[in-house]
Amino acid sequence: MPVFKRQFKLSGVVAPQDQFHQLIMGPALATLTTEQYIAPTIVQVNITVPSVETIGVPQYSPTVYGEAAGSYNPAGNCQGNFMSYKFQPNNNCYAYGCNITPNTFPQPGRQSGYLLTASDFQQSVAALGALVSGYAVKDGLQLAGKTMAELLVFKSSKQGTNPHPGIGSGAGYLGGHFVALMVSPAGSDANWPGDYHWARCDNSSGSCNSWSQKDGSDQVTNFDFAGNPISNPATANWTVNQGPVSTTNTSELVVAYEFYCFMFVPESGVSII
């Protein structure tokens, strides 16, 4: 009987078996022709970290920027790109968190020239969380704290400071929404490559106790990985059973994503790919 290598279910990172969203690099990019790839567009991005190079990112439809993420409305966000069968597989948790659908399975920092690599996930939760959130800052997100109390303080400092377009100043206008970052470093057990995950607040201008998430190419839901409503991502269940490791090792690999921080997504000024 052949021994198979487990194909992991990843939430944010592009899985090795996902041939639709692999980067185009080196000689393949230099000789690029549109007939070579399924994606109708290959967006070229200049990377500066970890090294200077140009990459090609397959894009399956033009980027759509959603309106203010003020409630749980998956079918209405970004013209339905998170739910449509045509676009859903191309937008991951980071796209949903930012309320932007680049249709590229976007990665933190990539639009800004910072590329996450496999070696980046060979770090502690603290180091990996700092790296992923730091790359998200490069894309326009803002750190908002590591506890719900800190998030609420940040929220108070934001509300009413920016005028609402066409309406003017208002004490309750926030000018964006909150997201939460969870990370899972690589592990030696069954060669888990590491991953990250984002959840999005659905009442950022209110009590911030209603959240939702999109797990990789899956549909949007307002439940955590255990099927519980998400009232606080810092205490939600982000544990995933990845199933048997191989045909010769039937023990199941259980992976935990650990909460790292809250971040703020402004309604304008965020760019991802």
Helix/strand layout:
Layout: H1 27-30, E1 41-47, E2 53-59, E3 64-65, H2 93-98, E4 100-101, H3 125-138, E5 142-145, H4 148-158, E6 176-184, E7 195-201, E8 211-214, E9 220-221, E10 239-244, E11 252-256, E12 258-266
How would a textbook summarize the main sheet?
A: 6 strands, antiparallel
Distance between the termini: 41 Å
Instruction: Give the averaged pLDDT, no decimals.
Output: 91
- Spans where pLDDT lies below 50 across 5 or more residues: none
Number of domains: 1
Q: Radius of gyration from the CA trace?
A: 19 Å
The shape is globular
* Number of separate helices: 4
Order of helices and strands: HEEEHEHEHEEEEEEE
**What is the total tally of β strands?**
12
How helix-rich are the residues, as a percent range?
A: 10-25%
Largest sheet strand order: 5-12-6-7-8-9
Structural class: alpha+beta
| Beta-strand content estimate | 15-25%
Summarize the structure.
The protein has four helices and twelve strands.
Task: Describe the model.
The chain is α+β, with helices and mostly antiparallel strands and 273 residues long. The protein has one domain (27-266). It has four helices and twelve strands; from the N terminus they run H-E-E-E-H-E-H-E-H-E-E-E-E-E-E-E. It has helices at residues 27-30, 93-98, 125-138, 148-158, and strands at residues 41-47, 53-59, 64-65, 100-101, 142-145, 176-184, 195-201, 211-214, 220-221, 239-244, 252-256, 258-266. The strands form four sheets. Strands 5-12-6-7-8-9 form a six-stranded antiparallel β-sheet, sandwiched between helices. Strand 1 (41-47) and strand 2 form a beta hairpin. The model has no long low-confidence stretch (mean pLDDT 91).
